[in-house]
Design goal:
The protein is an alpha+beta fold. It is built from four helices and 18 strands. The strands form five sheets. Strands 2-11-10-5-6-7 form a six-stranded mixed sheet, with no helix packed on it. It has a four-stranded antiparallel sheet with strand order 12-13-16-15. A three-stranded antiparallel sheet has the order 3-9-8, with no helix packed on it.
Length: about 290
């Protein structure tokens, strides 16, 4: 009698270990707006070989949302009447791969609301196994925008600001030279609005080195960068300078000087030559 009981227990344990569900060890990283595959497969416990899942029930749920239904396959077809509305029309199994034990789920048009913990559950009669893992969603922000905050005529130095918006999570921002060496710059400033980050960082460069630097923003394998364009920098400096006021002052000064020149006729040549040179220096720009 004891031997029968032991045999039954052995058979029960053996049957319960008939297969196992395998998934990723690390979180799956997806980019907002793209498609992603949630990997999951069925394997024999003994030799790790694959087995068909065509006649099994496959259930994908969100563990962090009370096991809300993401996708269900049973009786050899998709049955998603209880599926979360957020996933409607965006999920699919690789049906041609089910015979090879591939029960991965395809998720299209990923958004930040898809970030969370997912459970892949496979059930066949009295045998059931599952595997859980997380999805992390990244949002790629704007191209870096470089602007001039200040120009010092004495030292001939520019204070430049690099800014990029709409990232998730917070990216890394660097100022680099042409050889991709890090340049000395201020601390990175970040601002979070809802779930997106804006980052910015300042640098001071000499006029002679202005075309030797660029700004790079990095998040994982995603890179966005912008090189400093001397022509654009010069345009910003000129637009921010009180050009109209200077020109108005020049016109008034010239009229006044002409009157004085008429009175002091003998000094006209020398006076005009020296003063004209002085006014020309006044309206000069750094570029």
């Amino acid at each position: 009698m004891k031997s029968v009981v032991v045999m039954m227990l052995f058979l029960h344990c053996a049957l319960s270990e008939k297969f196992k569900v395998v998934g990723p060890v690390s979180p799956v990283v997806a980019t907002a707006g793209s498609d992603v595959v949630l990997p999951c497969s069925l394997r024999h416990s003994a030799d790790q070989s694959s087995l068909s899942a065509v006649n099994m029930n496959i259930t994908w749920t969100r563990s962090d949302l009370g096991d809300a239904l993401v996708h269900f396959y049973g009786n050899r077809e998709d049955m998603n009447t209880r599926q979360i509305p957020h996933y409607r029309g965006r999920t699919a199994l690789f049906t041609e791969e089910l015979q090879n034990g591939n029960v991965s789920l395809s998720l299209s048009d990923v958004s930040v609301f898809d970030e969370g913990e997912y459970r892949c559950n496979v059930e066949s009669g009295e045998w059931e196994r599952d595997f859980s893992f997380k999805i992390r969603v990244e949002v790629i922000g704007t191209r870096p925008l470089i602007s001039v905050e200040r120009y010092d005529e004495k030292s001939e130095q520019f204070s430049l600001l690099c800014e990029s918006k709409g990232w998730r999570p917070q990216p890394d921002l660097q100022w680099l030279d042409r050889e991709e060496n890090n340049l000395t710059a201020g601390d990175t400033e970040s601002h979070r609005e809802v779930d997106l980050f804006t980052v910015k960082r300042r640098i001071t460069v000499y006029k002679t080195d202005i075309d030797n630097s660029y700004c790079r923003v990095t998040l994982g394998r995603h890179i966005r960068e912008e090189r400093v364009k001397p022509s654009a920098i010069c345009d910003q400096v000129q637009k921010s300078s009180p050009k109209e006021g200077i020109m108005g002052g020049i016109i008034s000064a010239v009229v006044f000087d002409l009157v004085v020149a008429g009175i002091v006729y003998v000094c006209t040549g020398a006076f005009w030559s020296v003063h004209a040179h002085k006014e020309l220096q006044t309206i000069s720009f750094p570029c």
